[in-house]
Amino acid sequence: MAAQEKILSSLIISGKSTKYFQEIVRSQVKNKKTFFEYIPLNDYNSLKPYIENALKGEKNVLWPGKVKWFAKSSGTTENKSKFIPVTKETLKYCHYKAGRDLLAVTINNFPETGIFYGSGLIMGGSSQINKLNKGSVTGDLSAILSDNLPLWTKLWQQPGKRVLNNTNWEEKTEQMARETIRSNITHITGVPTWTAVLFNKVLQITGAANIHEVWPNLEIYVHGGVSFEPYRELFKKYLPDEKMKYMETYNASEGFFGFQDQSNMSDMLLLCNHGIYYEFIPFNSFFSDSPQVIPLEDVKTGINYVLVISTNSGLWRYIIGDTLEFVSTKPYRFRLTGRTKHFINTFGEELIIDNADKAISYACEKTNAVITDYTSAPKYFSENSSGAHEWLIEFETAPTDIVYFTNLLDDRLKELNSDYEAKRMANLALGLPIIKVLDKGTFYKWMKENNKLGGQNKVPRLSNNRELVESILNFAKKNNKSEIV
Questions:
Q1: Do residue 111 and residue 170 come from a single domain?
Q2: Distance between CA atoms of 155 and 183, rounded to whole angstroms?
Q3: Among residues 130, 170, 317, 376, which one has the fewest Cβ atoms lying within 10 Å of its Cβ?
Q4: Do strands 255-259 and 245-252 pair parallel, antiparallel, or not at all (unpaired)?
Q5: Which of 474, 20, 454, 456 is nearest to 201 (CA)?
Q6: Long-range contacts of the stretch 200-203 (C-beta < 8 A, 24+)
Q7: φ and ψ at 316, to 5 degrees?
Q8: Domain housing 460
Q9: Are 248 and 333 in contact (CB under 8 A)?
Q10: Predicted pLDDT of residue 259
Q11: Rounded CA gap, 304 and 158, in Å?
Q12: CATH number of the structural domain spanning residue 112
């Protein structure tokens, strides 16, 4: 808490010289109390006019000085990109500091590690000169981080910058695979969805049975971006060696917030001394006219919170859109539970991504199924039927009995979510889930058609309307070889 207090004081001092403070709060913010009183809660749209001015090269807008880097972030399949400012302070005191801490924790947990005797493969995006201001750069956060790493770290980094800067994801994946298959890769960092695409390409080129036949010394996979739970069985097929270790991180364009610090547990440690001040909104009050906002010291375990951050990139009381739940407060350990925009509550069931990930992983485990990707949305009431959730699932290994799989999914959702269980009572408000099995590669092809390959792009797990599901279904009907089951 002392670190959090110190960070907030430092942020307030820096903010006083900015255009944002001068326009929004005049000279009213002098301390912690007045900070909460005068600085409003923000989202990207409320800060967008300031970010656009910073993109054009204006100084002292949200943060003192001129911002050179802007992380392009869409996150899901929304049409418009966000440009998140990344200052030199954020690079040094947040992202790189957290990276060093993660490395130290990894070595502490696995002192016998051999990662320094080989190379690290980064599933990174690309960057380009900002068209609005040639003195700045926009691109995926991974590209910005890679471009600014100390020179000595490049000795362990694969692939080269030429490949990383390729904006054509399919070409990049091919180049990445061919450039690294003869390298001694000991650790990989990337989003599971796109790492799986690379693995498939590597196996296709080499004819190997699994990834360890290509990279026998691969021992650590650092992942984030989406929950790893639905991908766990898939990665066991790619990486069957029991020595393989997995480290989850919570690293976004807006900052590096936490990582898995214990090898025997999957929860992540909140990083409290990395340039970010945290606040939290209980999810059940988030959509009210006056949401309750509490500091870190007042959080409790077992409650779903919306994350609010103030950062050394000038994101002031910024609602990042992620939800999390604390499993410990001494120290602060948490797990991600979903997104504020990605849930289903059409029938009062309040289904969140954490419920969906756990339920689908359970059904896969019980049926020896392996999934590649999935999404779900409500199917509305009709004259002849109750409402339901429609699930579009792409399997690597499909269950032999999809009805049994459906019932397992449904039963697990009831166990995890009492609101869902209540709405499922006697099929009155909510019927049994409807599962549509898609051909392999459908999600990838759909994302390609929508210019959303690679980077941090991902298909939303849950939607509260049918727009996304209908788009994927229409695409699948036109392009898939087999009939949708």
A1: yes
A2: 12
A3: 170
A4: antiparallel
A5: 454
A6: 201/173, 201/174, 201/176, 201/177, 202/177, 203/238
A7: -95, 120
A8: 343-479
A9: no
A10: 96
A11: 38
A12: 3.40.50
| Distance, CA of 267 to CA of 332 (rounded, Å) | 10
291 cis-preceded (ω within 30 degrees of 0): no
Tokens of 278: 């945290």
428 is a domain residue: yes
77 in any annotated domain: no
Examine the domain organization and report whether 330 and 376 are in the same domain.
no
Residues 128 and 235 grouped into a single domain: yes
What average pLDDT does the segment 448-471 reach? Answer: 84
When pLDDT is averaged across residues 191-199 and rounded to a whole number, the result is: 87
Instruction: Kindly report the average pLDDT of the chain as a whole number.
Output: 88
d(CA 450, CA 475): 11
Looking at this protein, which amino acid is placed at residue 346?
T
The DSSP output letter for 116 is G
Q: How many domains would you assign to the chain? A: 3
In a domain, 76, yes or no: no
423, part of any domain: yes
Helix (H) or strand (E) holding 290: none
DSSP string, 425-481: GGGSSB---EEEEEPTTHHHHHHHHTT--STT----SB-SSSHHHHHHHHHHHHH-S
- pLDDT tens-place string over residues 335-376: 998 888 888 888 888 898 989 999 999 999 999 999 999 999
Domain final residue, candidates 259, 291, 321? 259
Q: Which residue has the tokens 């009805």?
A: 403
> Token match 């991504």: residue?
353
Chain CA centroid to CA 264, Å? 22
Selected residue with higher pLDDT from 28 and 50: 50
Domain co-membership, 332 together with 291: yes
Taking the C-alpha atoms of residue 59 and residue 170, their distance in angstroms, rounded to an integer, is 38
Residues 356 and 421 grouped into a single domain: yes
Residue 298, judged by CB atoms within 10 A of its CB (0-12, 13-18, 19+), counts as exposed
Assess whether 334 and 359 both reside in one domain: no
pLDDT at 76: 45
Hey, how many other C-beta atoms are within 10 angstroms of the C-beta on 80? 6
